[in-house]
Amino acid sequence: MKRTLASVVAGALALGGLVATATPASAHTPTIAADCDTLDVRLTDYSPREENVVTIHVDGEPVLEESFGSGASVSVPLDAAADTDWTVAVEAGDDPDGHRGWSFEESGERAACETPEPAGSPVQVAIYLYPKLDASRGAAWENSGTQELLGTKTLTLAEDELRNDQHWYTELPETDLLDGVDLCTGWGIQQDLLRGGPDEYEVPQNITYPDGSSMDGRLVDWQHQELDELGVELPTAADCDRPEQPEEPEEPVVVTPEIPAPVTVCGADATAVVPPANSEQVTYLSTEAGVVATPTEGNTFGADLAGYVRTDEGDVLFPIDDLLPAEEDCALVPGDIAAVCEGATPYLVYGVGLPEGIEVDDETPLTITFLNPDGDDYVQEDLPLEGRLLWPGASDTEPLQWPGYERQEDGSYTATDGNYAWTRDGVQVLFEVNPSYSTVVDYPAASEDCANPPADDTARPVAAETDETPAPAVDAPDVAEEAAPAASTEPELAATGTTAGWVAAVAVLLIGMGVTPLLVRRRLRTR
C-alpha cells in the first residue's frame, strides 16, 4: 500500500509542544496502536529543549518524518481491506544513540479487516426480444414467438425489494439484434427476474412459447413490453403500409385449467412442484409463487378456475401454499417430555418422533432450546430423538449446582438471579429437527431430594418456591428443621409433558396436565 506524505499530514498530523514545561527525561512515553482504519502514534513527556524526530513507514513507504518538541500525536489512515505492516522510529534529542531507550524503532503488522457482505441476495434481470405471433396484438406470453436473450444484469436485492419494479431495464442494452429487423412485423420484449447470480445459474439463451421455461424454479417476476417503451422509435402504419386488419376472430372457447399434483414431502419448496403437461388449450409454468396457467389462442378461462386465482397479468395462478404440505402436518410428534429429579440433580427427559415423510441420516439430529423471554437462550445441539438432558445451571458432579443458586467459598449456597434462574418458573422448551415442537416444562418442585441446594451437610431445604421470590438462602439455620417428608427413591416428575399417540389424545392430555404446546417456526438462536 502506497500513501503520499502530503495526504497523511493533511488529515492526520497534530505536532507540537503538548506540555508547556520540561519534564524529567525518564518520563518519555510512546503509545502506538493500529486498528482497521488508522495507525495512531502518541508521544508525550519528551524534552522540549531538544530536537526530537518521529518517522513512520507503512508497507515500506515513508509517510511521515517530522520534528517535535515535548510531544506529538499522529493518526495515519490505513486500508482496512488489505494486510498492512508499519514501522515507527523515534529519535530523542537527549538520547541520540538510544542507550537510554528513549530513541527506538518499533514495527508491527495488522491483518486485513473483514468487510460486511451487502444486504440482500444476488438476482439477475434477463431481457428478451421476440417477434409477435400476431403483430396487431400487444406484447404477451401467448403472443410470443421464439425469444432471444438481449442481455442480463446482476443486482443484490433484499426480499422486500423484489417487487418494487425498480430493477427492470428502462432501455435496451447495446445489441445488434435489431439491425435489419423489420419493425413493421411487430416485436415484443419480455423481462424476467431470477434468483441467484451468474455463478449460480446461467439464464437460457432462448425461450419458446408455449413450452416456456420455469428457469428451474428461480423465476420471481416478469413483464412484457412494447419496443417503444424502451426507447425504440417504431414506424407508423403509413410507413409500414400494413394490409387490412383480419376479421374479428371467433369467440374463444371456455376451458378449465388442470389442478397441479400436490407435494407430499415435508421440507420441499417450489422447485419440487411439477406442473401439469401442456395441452392444446392450456400451457403451464411452475414459478416460485405457484403454477401459472395460460390459455392458448382461441381459448379462455371462465368462472370455474379449479382452485386457481387470477393475477394482474391476466393469467391464473395456483398458489404455492396450496401445493406444499401444511406446517402442522410436518411438526415433530411429541412423546414423554418432563422435568424430573434423579438423586439431587434435575434433568429434562424427553422423546419426540419424526412426522411421516421426514427421514434423517444422523443419529443425533435434535436441537433443544430453553427459550429465555428476556435474554440469551440455552441451546444444546446434536442430540438423539429421545434421552435425558442435564437441566441448565445444574451439575451432577461435585461441587453440585442448582439453577438460581451460586456456591460460596465456605460451601454454602445463596439464591441468585443468574445461573439460569429464569428456567425455574415454567420455561418454554423448543425441540427442532427440521419440523419443530414447543412445550412449557416446569422445574421440579423443591423437595428434600432436589430443586434446591442442601441447607447443610445432612439436610436439604424443603420450602416450596413461589412465583414471587426464590427459595431462601441455604445458610439460614432453621431450614433443615422445616424439611418435608423424606422423598421416595423414584425420580420426581414435574407436572408437565406429553404422551405420544393420536393428535387429539395428545391435546387432551396436555391440557389436563397444564402444558401449553405450541407449534412454532424453526428459530435458531444461540446462547
In brief:
The protein is mostly beta strands and 527 residues long. Helices cover 4% and strands 33% of the residues.
Description:
By secondary structure, this protein is mainly beta. It has 4 domains: about 5-110, Immunoglobulins (Immunoglobulin-like); about 120-235, no CATH class; about 260-320, no CATH class; about 330-510, no CATH class. The chain is built from 3 helices and 30 strands. The strands form 8 sheets. Strands 12-10-9-11-13 form a 5-stranded antiparallel β-sheet, with no helix packed on it. Strands 20, 21, 22, 25 and 30 form a 5-stranded antiparallel β-sheet that branches. The protein has a 4-stranded antiparallel β-sheet with strand order 1-6-3-2. The longest helix has 10 residues, at about 505-510.
Fraction of residues in β-strands: 25-35%
Rg, alpha carbons? 37 Å
How many beta strands in the DSSP annotation?
A: 30
- Kindly state the percentage of residues in helix: under 10%
Oligomer: single chain
| Mean pLDDT, all residues | 77
How many domain modules? 4
Shape assignment: flat
Ends apart, CA distance between termini: 40 Å
Structural classification: mainly beta
Can you list the strand order of the major beta sheet? 12-10-9-11-13
| Low-pLDDT ranges | 1-26, 457-527
Helices, by number, come to: 3
What composes the largest sheet? 5 strands, antiparallel
Main traits of this protein?
single chain; 527 residues; mainly beta; Immunoglobulin-like; five-stranded antiparallel beta sheet; 30 strands; flat; disordered N terminus; disordered C terminus
